[in-house]
Design brief:
This protein is mostly helical and 268 residues long. It has three domains: 99 residues, Orthogonal Bundle (Rna Polymerase Sigma Factor, Chain: A); 52 residues, Arc Repressor Mutant, subunit A; 78 residues, Arc Repressor Mutant, subunit A (Orthogonal Bundle). 70% of the residues lie in helices and 2% in strands. It is built from 13 helices and two strands; from the N terminus they run αααααααββαααααα. A two-stranded antiparallel ribbon has the order 1-2. α2 crosses α4, α10 crosses α13 and α11 packs across α13. The longest helix has 24 residues. The model has no long low-confidence stretch (mean pLDDT 77).
């Protein structure tokens, strides 16, 4: 297919229009000019987001990456000097990518050292299973990693503290009728007193309130709507104007923070 020849006059008009937008924005701080520049260069954000998404799990939605990248684009617009002999695209792309990566890192509340240890144990287990043709023992895993079995137990404990399991996950009910229960259902002791009444103590209420207050405003909203108002993650996403996967990320982070906060208070 032959490319359509570019019209020099049209190119000149586009450059003149862009130069006018930059002058209005930089010299006069024109809000309409700023908005026009954001719209004009927004395809850059989609381009960078698609490139970053290539190396991420499918659970990370590209729409979220685009929303993170917009902040990088805005920052680039603010700091770019149009008088310099450099294209804005060249200047902006690294900043857009940096904004996306920074946000992804901020969402990952699990320490890198713990993730590394988890990968090492998983790798050792896989290698031993392939060699032994069976599940390896703890002693064999520890020897393979060159550590004591007590160290292995410590590492597994650290990993367990940051492992998140969905309480809505369905598990076998264990009865003759083959009914299934959610994991949350299996945590309840039907012969025990009502857990709500058990939480009425002043100390427990104070600990829980302190833990919730340590969350960000958006995390508080997600926890409240999910656990107290009974909204689904999708419904919460509609309330906050974000995707369901983004709400899931906020929920996971909030639960982890609450767990760590309550554990710290209990140890104190």
């Amino acid at each position: 297919m032959r490319k359509t020849a570019r019209d020099p006059a049209e190119d000149a008009a586009n450059r003149a229009e862009l130069d006018g937008l930059w002058r209005s924005f930089k010299d006069e701080r024109s809000q309409p000019a700023r908005d026009q520049l954001i719209i004009r260069f927004s395809p850059l954000v989609k381009y960078v987001a698609s490139r970053v998404a290539t190396g991420l799990p499918a659970s990370v939605e590209q729409a979220d990456l685009v929303s993170y990248g917009i902040f990088g684009l805005i920052d680039a617009l603010e700091k770019f000097d149009p008088t310099r002999d450099i294209k804005f695209e060249t200047y902006a792309i690294p900043r857009i990518r940096g904004a996306i990566i920074d946000e992804l890192r901020s969402l990952d509340w699990v320490p890198r050292s713990v993730r590394f240890k988890a990968r090492e144990i998983e790798k050792a287990t896989t290698e031993l299973e392939a060699r032994l043709k069976r599940a390896p023992s703890e002693k064999e895993i520890a020897e393979h990693l060159g550590i004591r079995i007590g160290e292995l137990h410590d590492i597994v404990t650290q990993i367990s503290f940051v492992t998140v399991t969905a309480l809505e996950e369905v598990v076998p009910g264990g009865n003759d009728r083959g009914e299934s229960l959610s994991l949350l259902d299996t945590l309840a002791d039907m012969n025990a007193p009502d857990p709500i009444s058990g939480m009425e103590g002043t100390e427990m209420r104070a600990m829980l309130a302190h833990a919730v207050n340590s969350l960000t405003e958006r995390e508080k909203i997600v926890v409240t709507l999910y656990y107290f108002e009974g909204l689904t993650l999708a419904e919460i996403g509609e309330v906050l104007g974000v995707t369901e996967s983004r709400v899931c990320q906020i929920h996971t982070k909030a639960v982890g923070l609450l767990r760590n906060n309550l554990r710290t208070q209990d140890e104190d």
